[in-house]
Design brief:
With 379 residues, the protein is α+β, with helices and mostly antiparallel strands. The chain is built from six helices and 15 strands.
Length: 379
């Protein structure tokens, strides 16, 4: 090292050289991955491998940005601590990359290695407005206009309602579902307030076989009354995103589906566990308002991008979703669960005392504020 050289500068230059020297190797790897996916039928695992490389590249980028910030730290001790923190962050992100990679490979084991490039034929889908009027709804996810369920848990109220709006998404006729989450609190005067936490517009279609197809969603989180981010949004046919199977009409235990496919954005999948069951005692037991009584479909659902946030979900035939049970990284129930408090064929169900809404009028106002075009109710 020459006199006066800054060790941190030398390290950054060395890292940059190492990263740039891999350009030709990356190109070769991409070509080889294409060949593996085409000739070897390994599209799913090849997809996972390439995304692991992308995660690693992103990790290195974050590391270099952190190191760059360390250059401007005046204190030598603080500079050393800054570099140590950068290395620790890089190591943690390396573990995350591997966890996500392993989770994606588990999806491949479940759904197979074939490319997920399903071309749904719009002619094979029913008119959403005919569901419940001549066409039976999916027994586990009814798309009948007005179908509404409410979840009250941990100081939050979630209202999910099927509007009478139909939207074409990637050529498919989809029912628009509004899913809004509010934080319930009381002000200094004791009046109940509902502050939006997450506002989502989901789009679902029903295949002639009865399968509920997830066409996409527009979602955003809300912080202090302002839109925070739109992570998780996707639309079938846009930016290579694909619709998937939310839940089949005739699921087979042990089989599974991709519920959505927008690479590195929305990758949820479902595995069908049991057709006729009841939540175990470890999961908190049966649902109070809509008990399974041994008849519920149990599914395992997770996004491989966040493998530590899996859930068991329960669907009561003829009723729909009734319960979600959170699982830890080992697949064991955490004790946290969200169960449907009430269900009806319109938003009028919010006025039902059994629903447990502290102030239905205030909640209606909040719904009207965040989804006026779909849910605002004229006096």
């Amino acid at each position: 090292m020459s006199k006066g050289s800054n060790p941190i500068t030398v390290m950054v230059v060395g890292l940059a050289a190492a990263l740039s020297s891999g350009a030709s190797a990356d190109e070769f790897s991409v070509d080889r991955a294409r060949a593996d996916a085409t000739d070897g039928g390994q599209a799913c695992s090849t997809h996972a491998k390439l995304l692991r490389r992308a995660c690693s590249a992103d990790r290195n980028d974050d590391f270099l940005v952190h190191i760059a910030d360390c250059v401007y730290v005046s204190s030598e001790q603080d500079e050393r601590e800054c570099r140590a923190e950068a290395r620790a962050d890089r190591a943690e992100k390396a573990e995350e990359c591997e966890d996500v990679y392993e989770a994606r490979l588990e999806v491949c084991d479940l759904v197979g290695e074939m490319r997920f490039d399903i071309e749904f034929d719009p002619a094979e889908f029913v008119d959403p407005n005919d569901i419940g009027d001549g066409i039976d709804p999916n027994p586990y996810w009814p798309l009948t206009a007005g179908h509404t369920h409410v979840i009250i848990a941990d100081g939050e109220v979630t209202v999910v309602t099927a509007t009478d709006e139909v939207r074409e998404v990637g050529g498919l006729p989809c029912r628009v579902i509004r899913d809004l989450v509010f934080e319930e609190s009381a002000d200094e005067m004791g009046e109940i307030e509902y502050d939006a936490v997450e506002v989502t517009q989901d789009w679902y279609a029903q295949h002639v076989d009865g399968d509920a197809i997830y066409c996409g969603e527009n979602t955003y989180e809300v912080e202090d009354g302002l839109i925070d981010n739109t992570d998780g949004s996707f639309a079938n046919g846009t930016d290579r995103a694909r619709a998937g199977f939310l839940v089949r009409a005739f699921p087979v235990p042990g089989e599974g589906d991709r519920q959505e496919m927008a690479t590195d954005e929305a990758e949820d999948y479902v595995r069908y566990e049991k057709l006729m069951t009841t939540p175990s005692n470890d999961e908190g037991g049966d649902v109070d308002a809509f008990p399974c009584n041994g008849t519920c479909l149990q599914t395992f659902e997770v996004n491989p991008r966040d493998p530590g946030q899996a859930e068991y979900k329960y669907y009561l035939p003829g009723t729909g979703f009734v319960l979600a049970v959170k699982l830890d990284e080992d697949g064991e129930p955490t004790g946290e669960r969200e169960e449907v408090s009430c269900l009806g064929d319109s938003l009028d169900v919010l006025n039902d005392p059994s629903c447990g809404i502290a102030d239905p009028a205030a909640l209606f106002d909040a719904l009207c504020t965040w989804a006026p075009e779909a849910l605002c109710i004229d006096d």
